[in-house]
Automatic annotation (TrEMBL):
The lineage of its organism: Bacteria, Bacillati, Actinomycetota, Actinomycetes, Mycobacteriales. Its EC number is 1.14.13.-. GO terms for biological process: pyrimidine nucleobase catabolic process. Keywords: Monooxygenase, Oxidoreductase. This is Flavin reductase family protein. InterPro entries: Flavin_Rdtase-like_dom, NADH-dep_flavin_reductase, Split_barrel_FMN-bd. Belongs to the non-flavoprotein flavin reductase family. Residues 32-181 form the Flavin reductase like domain. GO terms for molecular function: FMN binding; monooxygenase activity; riboflavin reductase (NADPH) activity. It is an enzyme of class 1 (oxidoreductase).
Length: 187
């Protein structure tokens, strides 16, 4: 990233915090709870063991090159491992994996305690069994913004379950503080 781009990001983040009078954290959180998000779990190897967490801020950024992003709060128990990581895996969860979303949203000690739920791929990152789609990502840049860090990564491997069972084709969503499945609308 160029120095001018970095300065622009810093200036825009500073300007945003200075020019947001009247918008309290609880108002902001309440408004965004109304926007549904796909549920992902990010996993990586920290050098001292596997690390993972639930993330709903996942986004596709670019097709060429294939870039994705997600946010992690600076108070997360996983932030140190993310800042040191060269690569990670982003799991796009199916509705049948709500138990994993809940598990990875809890205490870090519980996340990988059941070794029947995951394995390692050749490059060393932990991968969760039964995930319809997962992406291996090389970290391209970390951008501090507000109380979070935006992680941008280049997708170097995309794995899709070649024969997902019917229930595994449906993505897991998070909306209004609860997990959901999408329902097709009548046309």
């Amino acid at each position: 990233m160029s120095l001018s781009m970095s300065n622009a990001l810093e200036c825009s983040a500073t300007a945003a915090s200075e020019h947001a009078p009247g918008v309290r954290g609880d108002q902001y959180r309440s408004a965004l709870r109304r926007h549904p998000a796909g549920v992902t779990i990010v996993t990586l190897e920290s050098g001292s063991g596997p690390v993972g967490f639930t993330a709903t801020s996942f986004a596709s950024l670019s097709l060429d090159p294939p870039l994705v992003s997600f946010n992690i709060t600076d108070t997360s128990s996983s932030i140190g491992a993310v800042r040191s990581a060269e690569s990670l895996v982003i799991h796009l969860l199916g509705e049948h994996q709500q138990h994993l979303a809940q598990r990875f949203a809890r205490s870090a000690a519980e996340r990988f305690s059941d070794e029947s739920l995951w394995t390692r791929i050749e490059s060393g990152e932990p991968v969760l069994h039964g995930t319809p789609v997962w992406l291996r990502v090389v970290v391209d840049r970390l951008i501090p913004l507000g109380d979070s860090t935006l992680v941008v990564g280049v997708v170097v491997r995309a794995h899709e379950d070649p024969n997902p069972a019917e229930g595994k084709r449906i993505p897991l969503l998070y909306h209004e503080g609860a997990y959901h499945r999408p329902v097709a609308l009548e046309e």
